[in-house]
Design goal:
The chain has 124 residues and is α/β, with parallel strands linked by helices. 46% of the residues lie in helices and 24% in strands.
Length: 124
Amino acid sequence: MASVILLVDDEHDLIQVLADALREVMPGYEVALAHTFDEADAAIRELHGEQRLALVVVDHMLGGRTGLDLLRQLHADKSSVPSILFTGQADEEVAEQAAAVGARVLWKPLRLREWLKEVRSLLT
């Protein structure tokens, strides 16, 4: 079974563009999508339990919860799963908190080429 990159964002169009790009340039990985905190949490539990989770990429704003909340939960058990938090609405404090749990922070608007470069660097 292939390793999985989990993309989490409530912006359906953006997440589809990112998923399509990943499928084209990272054919050795499966791409899973989640649009809510709860969907992402369930996917992480399943994939991490199967040892298939290779990377989590999450937007900061997810309705009532945040991507930072999700990453804190992911890394609470000292998980070594790499992660990226992307945001256009957070401040430097959020970026520092994300870095404290081991996540890289990228600011919106995302530049696809730079985003793919970050993803590759975390997976190689």
